[in-house]
């Protein structure tokens, strides 16, 4: 019997319309999909006490699969709600299409293997690997369609293919196919597939079906990317979901292929803010580098005297001794290597101009949060002066002027659990700093107020909270000049913007889940 992918009202769901449509249909459509994987997880957990050691991997795999289904369902609900409220947000950035496809297929392999199916992708020769567009949204569509293919295919394969539909100097229209060898879809049911809450119901022993959200989300995303989506299928002949998107040729980055490959570096990271250290260390280590840390300038100097590092990354302003003084002492011969690359690390936009950075002996200034591409470009230019140095082509995208969302996605896009932990730590720390600054202002403790504002500025920069960073910087300057009235106004503004920043960070967190 072919797949019966029908609209909700034809599959026994209550028919409602208008503003009440979303909650009632959502409850009716998703209740089974939530309960089924949850019950599977509970059942597998109950078996751990009984099973032999050899069964562990299989049990864990089943639980992971069930958890992924819940995760996808929750994300679909969140996405649909956001799309209803404000449409689909699409960004524009360079990415490698082949790598994105490889990652999509790799993530789906466990589900394919569990179902005994083959999975893969094909790129025609004229499809460029480097393109410009929204990698995450394109991946979201492909991920949804591949999951559907695996869900409704009992034997055979699911394959993704991509070809060029149109090409010009500044536009590239690609056509993607997601083909499965399942039982196909009746013609009369195909036109309703992309409606909100159109279910994919199937008469099979496992009763596999969806909540009717994924294809509706695919339609909205594809349309936001300047394309269209459709299905071609005959009963017994499998199904081919097809869509087009409008991308662009990747920006010229001046020959990345000529760049010297950086070895894994030993790095000294010195900063007095624990959150900055945690985020930056995790980022550097996830790129293969070895990192040791110091909480102030004096500790950094002692490490540099007794240990050898490839690179030092020093906060501009630290207790005991600032980064500039540490650098001057190393350059004068107090450390193991007077010529090592040393970079200033700061939350300020332009704390020093190039002349002052050079005068201190540092090799350059890197803003917080650390951008790995820029960091590695700077280090490469210092270690390999003849290597081609690419130019940055990305643009900062702010969430209502509060958050540098693109920077956060570059840092944490594939590590949502890390982002969640650090977000919570940052917000908790920021609330404590607000209380400390209010007490300092009440007691006219200007040095304490300036010091705490500086700390908030650094942690805000690391979390991409650009508005809080700028306001904390301004408060620090006001405190240093002991301007009481201005400090009070700035504190009130910071309190209000911290609430808005928390909402923006929660929104970004929900996108990554």
Structure commentary:
With 513 residues, this protein is of the alpha/beta class. The chain is 50% helix and 15% strand. It contains 16 helices and 14 strands. The chain has helices spanning 21-47, 56-86, 97-115, 135-151, 187-190, 214-224, 274-286, 297-306, 323-331, 354-360, 372-383, 405-412, 416-442, 446-462, 466-480, 484-512, and strands at residues 93-96, 118-123, 130-133, 157-167, 172-180, 229-233, 239-249, 266-270, 290-294, 311-315, 342-346, 364-367, 398-399, 403-404. Strands 1, 2, 3, 4, 5, 6 and 7 form a 7-stranded mixed sheet that branches. A 5-stranded parallel sheet has the order 9-8-10-11-12, sandwiched between helices. Helix 2 crosses helix 6 (214-224) and helix 13 runs antiparallel to helix 14. The protein is elongated and about 75 Å long.
Features:
single chain; 513 residues; Heat Shock Protein 90; Four Helix Bundle (Hemerythrin (Met), subunit A); 5-stranded parallel β-sheet
